[in-house]
Amino acid sequence: MGGQTEQGPTLTRSLGQAATAQVPEQTRPADEVTSRPKRPASPSAPTSADTTAGSVLADRYRLISRVGSELAAGAEFWRAEDTILQRDVAITLLRRLAPDPHSDDPEGATRAGEMIVRALRSGCFEHHGCARLLDVLAPGASGIPDDVLGAAVAEWVPGRSLGETITAGLIKPLAAARMVEPLAAAAEAAHRQGLVLGCDHPQRIRVTPDGRAQLAFVLPRPGVRPADDVRGLGAVLYALLTSRWPLSGSDAAQAGLGAAVPGEGGNYPAPSTLRPGVPVELDALTSGTLGSDGAPGRVHTAAAVHKLLAEVVAEDDRAALFPPVHDGVPSAPGDVWQDEGRAVRPVDPERRRKLAIGLCVLGAGMLIVFGYLGVQIGSLFGDSGGPRIVVGNSAAPPAAPAAAPAPAPVGGSTAIQPATVEVYDNTGDKDNAGRISRVIDGDPTTSWRTYIYKQQFPTLKPGVGVMASFVSPVQLSSLSIDSPSDGTIVQIRSAPSADADFADTVPIAQATLNSGVTQISLAQSQPVQHLLVWITKLSGGNDQYVTEINEITFQRAGD
Question: CA-CA-CA-CA torsion for 307, 309, 312, 315, nearest 10 degrees?
């Protein structure tokens, strides 16, 4: 369950003497749940760690810092660096246990093998609520230290850990519901495919900068069931609402959270009894997921959790026009309803200026349209003087009235803005896709760039491009590329659609970029709706190949 691809490689790791298994690696750019039922206790503590920060696994992944652990799985959670693709990754590492002669699994090899096999089965699972699995390192693979029984490599989830998010301050109840919804959707999708997430441990969860809870560390412990994921979803929501982790007290301590104390009958107190403003639906959801199996209102599936959270979020959207119930959290600057006496942040002057310019342009356009319609209506109903009939021979035809001089043709061309722009890479993940809009934002001080590659194209991949799409086909006369990456070679190609196969694109022009603005003529091209700027050679050298683009400007052919 899961980032930059090297021609979409298939990474193979041996699992003992078993048949080799293949997990496709899909990559992303660098940037940043443990059940109430009984868990199998580790037979003994892991051996003294030979693998520490700075160690390299499989001659590729350098460990940076340990960010957590799960004793029941014998697993450690690490932030690491992929030294080939130069991006951060999340590694779930399985330690070899200290030998225990009284255990059926003295060093944890059987446990590790089960977890590796489960990871291999989940290699094709992808969901925005779960980090993607990139690689699996099995026992016996080259470059695995003796104290490591295996590892799973996933994309790094930027943002903060669940513990950091909770300790930063109270979270609005409905904001907590929005955080957990994508994680619940991921659990539902995994269960439909016969997989589990293992989202019942607080240190496996991270919260992205846009407020989504994601499973960041894959490779769940053996024996984890879908019911454990359901309890984990309830635990994550309960922790966000109350700042207390309701499952394992040791897990809560590891994550830096307080442990929730169950009340009479073993049930946890409702979140609304610990803080004001928690909707009754969220109270019911937490009690239904964390209660005993036979308790009334028990929630059994991740699909039910996701459905209820989605309904709560949708109802919150519909009720945005009404003042919210006081929940003990100050209103944020972007909230519709502000606390009494709170100073409202003034309107951004830059936004006001852009709005004024837009209204002026709209008004000018309407005047032009109305003027044109007036001329056309006048020509229909005006007196044209009637036809002239000439009888017999005449030395010369009657003189026609002098016509007004025709307007001079518009010379050169006019700039046109594409409707959308995106990174085009049909071999894997897209280089810094979140920054691609900077190439058409009109600000040359902002830029997009490719990943930094250790080898020149096409060694790792054939190329990477920028796909610009217009509302309708347009005849272009040229385009200009503002770039500091001298020596970059680009092809300009037309495409039938934004996601067309590269083989279906047609080359129009080719150019080598200079440092600064490079003008590329498209005078011989046909009207095009989707235009691909395809980078076939990167700038730089010495294991530092990268191309940066500040701005791409498109010129439409003049009338």
Answer: -60
Residue 458's CB is within 10 A of a number of other CB atoms, namely 11
pLDDT confidence tier of residue 378, bands split at 50, 70 and 90? low
- Asked if 260 and 268 touch (Cβ cutoff 8 Å), the reply is yes
Q: Are the beta carbons of 332 and 341 closer than 8 angstroms? A: no
The amino acid at 145 = P
- Evaluate whether 180 touches 308 at the Cβ level (below 8 Å): no
Q: Taking the complete model, does pTM exceed 0.70, yes or no?
A: no
Report how far Cα 93 is from the mean position of its chain's Cα atoms: 25
The DSSP code for 326 is P
Return the amino acid letter for 18.
A
Quick: pLDDT tens for 417-456. Answer: 998 999 999 777 789 988 999 999 999 999 999 999 889 9
Least confident of 50-54, 151-155, 177-181, 305-309: 50-54
Number of helical H runs and strand E runs in the chain: 9, 26
Nearest to 162 by CA among 308, 33, 274, 2: 33
For 196-224, how does the pLDDT look when each residue is reduced to its tens digit (9 = 90+)?
Answer: 999 999 999 999 999 999 999 998 888 89
Residue for token digits 């209820």? 308
282 and 312 Cβ atoms separated by less than 8 Å: yes
Alpha-carbon span 236 to 213, nearest angstrom: 9
Cβ count within 10 A of residue 435? 14
Cα distance between residue 311 and residue 551, in whole Å: 42
Whole-angstrom CA distances from 202 to 129, 199, 250, 424, 490 are 15, 8, 11, 36, 47
Poorest-pLDDT segment among 240-254, 396-410, 412-426: 396-410
Reply yes or no on whether the pLDDT at 498 is more than 70. yes
Which domains, ranges and CATH numbers included, belong to the chain? 10-155 (3.30.200.20), 160-318 (1.10.510.10), 413-557 (2.60.120.260)
CB distance 240 to 212 below 8 Å: no
